[in-house]
Automatic annotation (TrEMBL):
This is DUF2062 domain-containing protein. It comes from the Bacteria. Pfam families: DUF2062 (PF09835). The chain crosses the membrane at residues 41-57, 63-83, 90-108, 147-166.
Amino acid sequence: MLRKIFKKYLPSHESIQQSRFVKFFGTLLYHHNLWHLHRRSVAGGVAAGLFAGLVPGSNPVQFFFATLFSVIFKVNLPIAVFTTLYSNPFTIVPLYIAAYFLGSWATGSKISSMDDLPPLELHLLDKHLSEWAPVLTDYLATLGKPLIVGLFLLASLLSVTGYFAVRMFWRYYVIHTWHKRAKRKRHSNNNP
């Protein structure tokens, strides 16, 4: 199972408590659910990571929010941080477009197609990163309320869906494993 693979790479409680980084935060990161792999903790970690993955900003900002949500809700921290990586340079544009249309629908804005979006005047090859980053920020600010509402709604929707999907998959896997074990046991009892 994936649990054995993750458990192999997760740190032990002793190594966590002896880490200089963790000692900086005191006992905040000592709760056992932050590091253990069980159905509720992993499902919560996926939900926290899916929500934090749509927080505007780069990966360190999203990692921070995933850690914060993990500590608040006492869910698996490494899973939450890892899950934020679904929003990356390849997926962020479709996610933001989906969030914008979801926010437009929720706020009642009249956006029906991509043609209704404000034009983006961004010449990446002509400018240095430090010059076009403010242009991109201003463009996102013009999208305003529909984008912000859409990001919150999409993050919530992904978070709830991810939570229940992990719980259902975990339950299915456990039941499937029980059935396989019972079948093997019946088979070994019938063939001494």
